[in-house]
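Action item from last week, closing it out:
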Amino acid sequence: MTQLDRYVARTLLGSIGLVMSVLLILGGLFTFIDEQSNIGVGHYDMSEALVFSFLNVPRFALNAFPAGVLIGAMLGIGALARSHELTAMRAGGMSKWRLSATTFGCGVVLLLTGLAVGEFLAPRLEQLADERRALARYNNLSLLGAGGAWVRDGNLIINIAQRDSAREFAGMWVYEMNADGGIVSMAHAQRASNNAHKAWQLGDYAESRFIGDGVRGLREPSHQLASAASANFLQLANVSPAELSISALYRAIRYLRSNELDDRSYLLAFWSGLARSAAIPLAVLFALPFGFGSLRSAGSGARSTLGLAVGLVYFFLQRTVESGAVVFNLNPLLLAWLPTMLLAAVTATLLARTR
């Protein structure tokens, strides 16, 4: 039985690996095509676009993982079913629950792989890709480690801390200089957003302006700063909650709650990430009943179509639920887990009806 377990696991993981390889090649190609409009800006050339596309492959892999796992599992189970190997295993005394445990174990391996990529690889490579593109496109941009990103626009020097789980709210520093290189004023804003082509909307703005031997202070809840610095610069500091790792989201939620700030979007992203990860073993297990049902002799095209259809339904249901939780202020914990719970219920029902 142990040899059969290993054989089933090799078949499933091999099929899933093949499907994911095709999806990653297509994802990298689509990203490279999408970057063609940016080529020629500054020093951003074809080779930089290719590097940018390659560095974003892990993020695409995370987004495509549930659908890729489902399609690959359907193809792997289908290969075993068409060759009557599943029937031979059942006849040899291997129960459907033993097969279920084996397929679920493959899903756990994939789950751990996805968590490792999401925690350690995808966020760092995605940030590196954004930094390389920004440095290639804008000659007046500098990245100095923990000091964050600096850009000069005429007599203004702007600084935003680099991307972090909670530093999205660290805001922006603005230094104004005179013709002799002296500092005329320095200001800090808790929040910054790009509301027009050449304007920043700054929140909780505090300014110190040096006049002769004195300093004049200014505080405004909202301040508009005219600057030609691109919104791409802000993206180096601010990151969508959906792009953060699970651990970074947890730290961000703790930070926001300790400062009595709104954490709903981060909380939803946190539970959604966990729910999507938990759906991976279920996606592998979902394919097993079709190896014994009416699709046991179906071709790979029918199985791929079914797997793709179920994967798209799960994907759009997850996105619809996430949007509804934000718009209607619904319980993020319940809604984030709803698609995964539905997938678990359907999988359990199909397995129970399998003879």
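Closing note: The chain has two domains: 2-137+242-353, 141-229.
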